Structures are given as structure tokens and as C-alpha cells.
């Protein structure tokens, strides 16, 4: 009796709720984007320090990994 | 400085690549070859060397001005590298830049040997290595070569120089001392180099540098016909020669050439080797060695962009640039024809 009850509750409640999983995915995506930007940002700063005219290019390249977060955000709204 | 204390190759290589693209190319050299010393100085003032030319312009003129400006700029560039780098990258760059410590010690010893005055020697130093200004000044103040060796006893050069000094006293030529310095430098360069794929490539580059230097030394000895045992001046760490092999090869130039031709450097050096076989000119062979090394590092820099190799490639390229400008300025001063100066240049 008790075992059956246990099995039923396990089936009914997944370990992570869909919305929680989406939040987790978003967080991980943002973490990945941050890590990617670390390297790009450092290189961009180096290039800008040598040549001011590279500011725009550096800025664009630095924020490119932000697209990762935006895609994850799409997933978040689909759930 | 990153607070994490990690290595920051992204930042350093980005800056280094920007600087590297600003180095003089074919076209600039072609212009420079046609200029006199004063014009060269003005040309340099309009490019990267502005600060140095301005700072030294009131005290020196002509070729001296160019020479000192070049040395100072070189030191500044390499100090910058050390300032930018952190962590493991700093360690690797500092190791490589000890080359200038070796150079400075050699300059001081040569200055004392030839009896040059202190200021002249001081102007020739490249203050880019690990030794700080204070220590270099102490070396400059030393009254004799023995005293220089004494003052270096606490550094990495200490033990090697102590042994070489006895040789120097017997023979009264500088070769033993200079070789002791070179050997110390190279043995420290490879010591405890941690191996991952990029560092492995870097290690190969250093080995190539050592091999080329050994080959060059052996050829020079063979050329002069001096009765010196090449094995004594052999630098350890290369992959091509062993000490005993080099000793026998140095006596026979043809065999040495064919040995290099069969090695892994054969393809890169085939033009240089043809040159060496046909002509007696050692200078052109040495230039060809420099070009081959430069090409090799350049290519490595593209294979592993986030490692020390692009930085090493920049260091070598910058050194070559300084050598080239100096050769042009000196050549023009001595009134050499343009073609001959062109032969002296190392251009990729």
C-alpha cells in the first residue's frame, strides 16, 4: 500500500518542474555567454588600447555571445 | 593585472598582433635604404619611434641617435609585454626575455675588455630583461671583468661564468665567457617547461633556435679554422646535433650541410643550403637561417593563437626590425651600395 503510494507520487512530481528547468537552462546559457565574453572582452580591450578605431568592432564582437542568452530566453517563453 | 592571477593570453596577443602589424614591411625598408641617417631618424620619428627620437634627439645625432632610439624602443616594447602578462604567460615571456640579460652581461664584459667608457657601454644596454636598472648600473660600475663575474655570482649566470673565467684567464679571449652566458640562458629556457600541446610547439621552436645556433657556431668555427673544440661550445637542448657529432661535423662542412639537409629543417632551409654550398658566403647563410626561424615562428603563431607563440614571434620580428634598421643606418653611413645593404636585411 505504502509502496504504491510512493510510486504514484514519484510519477506525479518530476524531479525538476519544467519552468525550473527552463530557468536553469537560461542561467547556464548566461554563464556560458559570460565565459565567452571574458576572453573576447580581454582581446578587444587589448586591440582598442593599440588602436582607438577598433572600439565599435570590439564592442560588437564582445556582445555577440549574448545571442546565446536570447536563444535560451526563447526556450523559456515556449515552456 | 587580473585579480584571478590566471594567464591572460587573449589580451596580450591582441595587443601584440596590433603592434606586429605596425612593424616596417618591404615597402618601408625599400624607402629607408635610399635615405641618409638624418632622414631615417625623421622617418622613425613619424612612426612608432617618436618618443625615443624626441627624448634622445637633443643629445645625439646621426647614426648614434638611431641606434640608441632603437635600443630604447626595444626595451620599452618588451617591458610592455611583461607589464601586460600575468600568471604562466608572464613566466614564459620573462624566461625568453632573459636573452637581454645575457646580451647586457656580454656587452658589459666586452666593454671592459675593449676599454670602452662607461657611458658608451650604458647606451648599448637593452634594459628589457630580468635585471633591474640598479643591478645593471652596479655591473657597469665594476672595474674589471673579474669583478663583473663576482657580482653576477648570485644570478643564474653565476656558476657557468665562474668556470669560464678560469678559461678566460688562460686564453685571454672572450669566447669562453660569452659561451658560458649563452649556455646558461638556453639551459634555463627549456628547464621545467610544462608540456601541453601549445607549449610543445613552443619547445620545438626553442629547439630549432638552439639547433640553428649550434649549426652557426660550428660553421663559424669551421670557417675560421681556429683550433677550438666545437664540443666545448655546444649548447644543450637542441634536437639535431649531439656534442660529439657536432665536433666531427664542424671539421667537414659538406657533411654538416648534408646533415642539415636531411633533418626536419631541410625543406625550410634548402635555399640557404644551396647558397652555402655554392658560395663561400657565411653571412648569407646566417641571414637565411634568421629568415627560416622567423617564418617558422610566424606560422606557429597562427596555429596556437592563445599561447606564447604569437608573442615569441613578435619578439623575434621586432628584434629583426631593429637589426635591419641598424644595418641600413650603419651601411649608409659607411657608404655601402644599396644592393649590399639589401643583402644584410632579414625580410620575410
TrEMBL record, chain A:
Organism classification: Archaea, Methanobacteriati, Methanobacteriota, Stenosarchaea group, Halobacteria
Molecular function in Gene Ontology: proton transmembrane transporter activity
GO CC term, one of those recorded: proton-transporting two-sector ATPase complex, proton-transporting domain
InterPro entries: ATPase_proteolipid_c-like_dom (IPR002379), F/V-ATP_Csub_sf (IPR035921)
Name of the molecule in the record: V/A-type H+-transporting ATPase subunit K
A Pfam family: ATP-synt_C
Transmembrane portions of the chain: 54-78
Domain of life according to the entry: Archaea
Membrane topology: Multi-pass membrane protein
Keywords of this entry: Membrane, Transmembrane, Transmembrane helix
Subcellular location: Membrane
Keyword Cell wall biogenesis/degradation: no
Domain named V-ATPase proteolipid subunit C-like: residues: 21-79
From TrEMBL, chain B:
InterPro entries to which the protein is assigned, alphabetical: ATPase_csu/dsu_sf, ATPase_V0-cplx_csu, ATPase_V0-cplx_csu/dsu, V-ATPase_V0D/AC39_subunit, V-type_ATPase_csu/dsu, V-type_ATPase_csu/dsu_dom_3
Keyword check for Ribonucleoprotein: no
Domain of life: Archaea
Membrane-topology descriptor: Peripheral membrane protein
GO molecular function, one term: proton-transporting ATPase activity, rotational mechanism
Subcellular localization(s) per the UniProt record: Cell membrane
Keywords: ATP synthesis, Cell membrane, Hydrogen ion transport, Ion transport, Membrane, Transport
Gene Ontology, cellular component aspect: plasma membrane; proton-transporting V-type ATPase, V0 domain
Matches recorded under Pfam families: vATP-synt_AC39
Record-level GO BP terms: proton motive force-driven plasma membrane ATP synthesis
Protein family according to the UniProt entry: Belongs to the V-ATPase V0D/AC39 subunit family.
Subunit description: Has multiple subunits with at least A(3), B(3), C, D, E, F, H, I and proteolipid K(x).
Role, per record: Component of the A-type ATP synthase that produces ATP from ADP in the presence of a proton gradient across the membrane.
PANTHER family, alphabetized: V-TYPE ATP SYNTHASE SUBUNIT C
Protein name: A-type ATP synthase subunit C
Amino acid at each position: 500500500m505504502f509502496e504504491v503510494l510512493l510510486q504514484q507520487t514519484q510519477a506525479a512530481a518530476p524531479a525538476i518542474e519544467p519552468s525550473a528547468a527552463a530557468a536553469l537552462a537560461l542561467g547556464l546559457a548566461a554563464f556560458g555567454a559570460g565565459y565567452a565574453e571574458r576572453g573576447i572582452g580581454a582581446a578587444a580591450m587589448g586591440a582598442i588600447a593599440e588602436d582607438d578605431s577598433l572600439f565599435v568592432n570590439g564592442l560588437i564582437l564582445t556582445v555577440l555571445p549574448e545571442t546565446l542568452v536570447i536563444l535560451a530566453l526563447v526556450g523559456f517563453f515556449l515552456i | 593585472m587580473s585579480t584571478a592571477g590566471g594567464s591572460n593570453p587573449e589580451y596580450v596577443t591582441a595587443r601584440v598582433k596590433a603592434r606586429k602589424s605596425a612593424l616596417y614591411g618591404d615597402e618601408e625598408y625599400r624607402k629607408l635604404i635610399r635615405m641618409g641617417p638624418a632622414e631615417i631618424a625623421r622617418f622613425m620619428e613619424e612612426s612608432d619611434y617618436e618618443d625615443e627620437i624626441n627624448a634622445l634627439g637633443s643629445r645625439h645625432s646621426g647614426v648614434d641617435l638611431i641606434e640608441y632610439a632603437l635600443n630604447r624602443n626595444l626595451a620599452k616594447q618588451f617591458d610592455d609585454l611583461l607589464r601586460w602578462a600575468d600568471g604562466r604567460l608572464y613566466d614564459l615571456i620573462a624566461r625568453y626575455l632573459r636573452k637581454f640579460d645575457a646580451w647586457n652581461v656580454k656587452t658589459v664584459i666586452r666593454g671592459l675588455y675593449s676599454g670602452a667608457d662607461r657611458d658608451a657601454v650604458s647606451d648599448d644596454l637593452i634594459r628589457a630583461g630580468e635585471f633591474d636598472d640598479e643591478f645593471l648600473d652596479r655591473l657597469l660600475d665594476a672595474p674589471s671583468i673579474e669583478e663583473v663575474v663576482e657580482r653576477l655570482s648570485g644570478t643564474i649566470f653565476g656558476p657557468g661564468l665562474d668556470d669560464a673565467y678560469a678559461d678566460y684567464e688562460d686564453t685571454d679571449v672572450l669566447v669562453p665567457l660569452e659561451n658560458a652566458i649563452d649556455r646558461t640562458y638556453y639551459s634555463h629556457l627549456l628547464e621545467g617547461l610544462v608540456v601541453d600541446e601549445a607549449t610543445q610547439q613552443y619547445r620545438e621552436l626553442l629547439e630549432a633556435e638552439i639547433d640553428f645556433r649550434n649549426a652557426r657556431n660550428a660553421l663559424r668555427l669551421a670557417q675560421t679554422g681556429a683550433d677550438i673544440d666545437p664540443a666545448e661550445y655546444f649548447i644543450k637542448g637542441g634536437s639535431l646535433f649531439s656534442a660529439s657529432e657536432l665536433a666531427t661535423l664542424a671539421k667537414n662542412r659538406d657533411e654538416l650541410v648534408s646533415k642539415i639537409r636531411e633533418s626536419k629543417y631541410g625543406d625550410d632551409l634548402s635555399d640557404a643550403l644551396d647558397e652555402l654550398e655554392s658560395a663561400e658566403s657565411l653571412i648569407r647563410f646566417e641571414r637565411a637561417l634568421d629568415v627560416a626561424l622567423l617564418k617558422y615562428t610566424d606560422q606557429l603563431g597562427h596555429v596556437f593563437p592563445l599561447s606564447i607563440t604569437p608573442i615569441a614571434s613578435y619578439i623575434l620580428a621586432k628584434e629583426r626590425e631593429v637589426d635591419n634598421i641598424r644595418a641600413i643606418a650603419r651601411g649608409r653611413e659607411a657608404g655601402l651600395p644599396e644592393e649590399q645593404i639589401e643583402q644584410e636585411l632579414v625580410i620575410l
